[in-house]
Amino acid sequence: MAPAALELALGDLEPALRRFALRATRDPELSKDLTQETLLTVVQAHADFQGRSSLRTWALGILSHKVIDHFRARHLTLDLEGDDEQLLETASPDDVERTVSARQELGRVERALGQLPGRERLALLLTDVEGLDREAVCHALDVSPTHLRVILHRGRNRLRRLV
Description:
Butyryl-CoA Dehydrogenase, subunit A, domain 3; mainly alpha
């Protein structure tokens, strides 16, 4: 990929990476740092990108590894609890009631996600929120397809009970 095309693609990709990092860490500063580290890695390793997935999928996989590594290095758990305002975009400013209702519902889901074990949370975020294919999620989480199915099944069941 030409440098100009890569720069343009990364500019388009950065908001999605930052949203994912914020959902995974619930720390705005940390999400910025992890996003920048991911973009730097993509730039440095773009020659290794083989195109077997989209650039977005590849970058989200890199970011998910960085999130896991961050928490593993600090012996912390992933935390999705916190202020929903940073994650929500108002769909229709004229329809206040619908916007408030959507925020309340999203807040319930976000709090429920926050109660899931870290690997289940990341698997659900990568597959159900970010829409990555299962092969990419398996690679990002370093699990087999069978193990991913188990993780997703458990995570979705727990989420259903919590919500």
